[in-house]
Design brief:
With about 260 residues, the protein is an alpha/beta fold. It has a single domain, classed as Rossmann fold (3-Layer(aba) Sandwich). About 35% of the residues lie in helices and about 25% in strands. The protein has eight helices and eleven strands. It has a seven-stranded mixed beta sheet. Helix 4 packs across helix 8. The longest helix is centred in the middle third of the chain and has 21 residues. The N terminus is likely disordered.
Length: about 260
């Protein structure tokens, strides 16, 4: 996943993004919703924007030798370990490249569409790639809902302010602040049935592998946060220091999981 701020050279690139933090925060959530589709031996699955491939490898274990999993991303170097014989890895740009997996029984995309242009068109393309009866699971962060974390000290208020400013900046760049919360309606508009939605708050402590996500993101847009008046240079130094402190408690943004099934 790549997040770029227009007009700068600052990026969160695949080689630097803390995949382990994403896995720790959200893999259990994704697996739970995928399992609820009835996922089992013989299924053909497509993991879109597979990142490190942790969910793709789990899917491959679930579908067994008579099933198959296609794991795609614009950069697949993070998926070199833990290969399975029923797991195919393909470099693929969802925006520009043809759909590589027609007739999938399960398609999963986490933290993918919300970062891309024309995301509703891409959502329709994914739905059309399902086989009859196939399930589509889309997961993304809601950057509008507050994190529901208790803010009791000055340090916690600082961290909350900086993280809120980052969410606002990212939401402005996306240009669609209600993307995640609108997923159930969007799936229904595509004719999918059995549409459902759930959201998840991941509790985090400073110094954990999950907090590395916040450190990487804030460091990547440091100059923009200062330019937009979110925090001073010294305040950002303090915020990054606190994210390494095990005494700091916060939550990740709401992860919205929405799913639906293709009828025909």
């Amino acid at each position: 996943m790549t997040t770029e701020i227009p007009g700068t050279s600052t990026e969160v690139v695949a080689e630097e993004f803390p995949f382990l933090g994403l896995e720790a925060a959200f893999d259990a959530v994704s697996r739970r919703h995928l399992a609820a589709t009835g996922l089992g031996p013989g299924w053909d699955c497509w993991e879109v924007g597979a990142g490190s491939g942790s969910v793709a490898r789990w899917l491959a274990d679930c579908v067994g030798p008579y099933g198959s999993v296609l794991a795609t991303d614009v950069d697949t170097t993070g998926m070199l370990s833990g290969r399975r014989t029923n797991l195919r890895v393909l470099e693929h740009d969802l925006v520009w490249d043809p759909i590589p997996a027609e007739g999938s029984r399960c398609i999963h995309a986490r933290l993918v569409l919300g970062n891309l242009p024309k995301r509703q068109d891409l959502l329709a393309r994914l739905a059309s790639a399902l086989s009859p009866g196939g399930w589509l699971l889309i997961e993304d962060l809601d950057l509008v809902l507050p994190p529901c974390s208790e803010v009791a000290t000055g340090d916690e208020r600082l961290v909350h302010r900086v993280r809120s400013g980052f969410s606002e900046l990212l939401s402005d760049l996306r240009g669609d602040s209600d993307w995640a919360r609108g997923l159930p309606r969007r799936l229904g508009d595509l004719g999918l049935v059995g549409v459902g939605v759930s959201d998840h708050l991941a509790p985090v402590t400073g110094g954990s592998v999950v907090s590395s996500i916040e450190r990487a993101n804030l460091s990547a847009v440091r100059e923009q946060l200062i330019a937009f008046g979110v925090a001073t240079d010294d305040e950002l130094d303090r915020c990054l220091q606190l994210l390494d402190d095990p005494e700091l408690h916060f939550t990740m943004p709401h992860m919205v999981s929405a799913w639906g099934r293709r009828v025909r």
